[in-house]
Structures are given as structure tokens and as C-alpha cells.
Amino acid sequence: MAPFPVQGVVEGDFVVLLVAVDDEDPMSVVAEKIAYHAVNRRVAAREGSPRVRHNGKELAPDETVVTAGVAPLDVLEVSYA
InterPro entries under this entry (predicted)? Predict the structure, then answer.
């Protein structure tokens, strides 16, 4: 377990955030960590599960940043299904 910096943006937000996640966090947790800084602040809460996209590809909820091939400071996009 090690801190892993990523850039994150929630669909509908105009702010790209620098978020520290853990390299063993599954994408479901990464999505929550990114959304925490935007939802109910600049973006309204939405129903559904948050999903993470990396380079246009939706990542499985159980993938980690390491197994998904995410590099430090890559941009992860969070949207809701």
C-alpha cells in the first residue's frame, strides 16, 4: 500500500483535482475519493454507481490503479451509470 497521486474530474465539473489514492484501492474506492471533492460542492449528487474511465476506457470496479496500468498523475474521469 502506497500513496498514488492521480488527477480526477467528475462528469459535469470544471475542476480537475489532484487526489491521493492508494495503489491497492479498487476503482470503486478511487471513484468515491475523487467524487468526494466535487459532488454536492460543484456537481449535484446523482443516483447510480460511480464509474472510472482512463484514456476513454471504462475500468472494472475491482481493478486497482496498478493493475489497470494507471501512471502517477494520469487523469481519471468519474461518471455515474
Answer: TmoB-like_sf, Toluene_mOase_B
CATH code assigned at 12? 3.10.20.270
Residue 36 confidence class, pLDDT cut points 50, 70, 90: very high
φ, ψ for residue 31 (rounded to 5)?
-60, -45
pLDDT at res. 1: 86
Radius of gyration of the chain (CA): 11
pTM of the entire predicted model: 0.91
Q: Which domain holds residue 60?
A: 3-80
Specify the DSSP element, H or E, that contains 18.
Answer: strand 17-22
In this structure, are residues 24 and 4 in contact, taking their beta carbons and an 8 Å threshold? no
Degrees (nearest 5) of the Cα angle 9, 66, 4? 55
d(C-alpha 21, C-alpha 18), whole Å: 10
Q: What is the DSSP letter of 16?
A: P
